[in-house]
Specification:
Blueprint: H1 2-7, E1 11-16, E2 19-23, H2 30-57, E3 76-81, E4 86-91
Antiparallel strand pairs: 1-2, 3-4
Length: 96
């Protein structure tokens, strides 16, 4: 999944359990950036399908890895947490 995101110009920010948080910063052409993000998600889905086939060949559960993606507009990013535990992340601002 990392290769699929990076190949389309995305950035991998962190790993969260069995998930990955990546972003595609919008530059001069928002349409091109959105297309790159969708292409990255599609390539990641194909990579997971290939990995599931490989797992099936070893007799392992082949439906354990399932793709998922979310797209949003404006986000907030930076350190979030408490005095004793900080984490850099991206969050979607609450709607008012």
């Amino acid at each position: 999944m990392c290769d699929a995101v990076a190949a389309q110009g995305g950035e991998i920010l962190k790993f969260i359990g069995d998930a990955m948080l990546g972003d595609f910063p919008i530059g001069a052409d928002a349409v091109q950036t959105c297309a790159a993000a969708l292409n990255g998600a599609e390539h990641a889905e194909m990579a997971l399908a290939k990995e599931n086939q490989r797992r099936h060949g070893f007799g392992l559960a082949a439906d354990r890895l399932r793709p998922g993606a979310a797209c949003t507009g404006d986000v907030l990013y930076g350190n979030i947490g408490s005095d004793t535990r900080l984490d850099f992340t991206v969050i979607v601002p609450p709607s008012i």
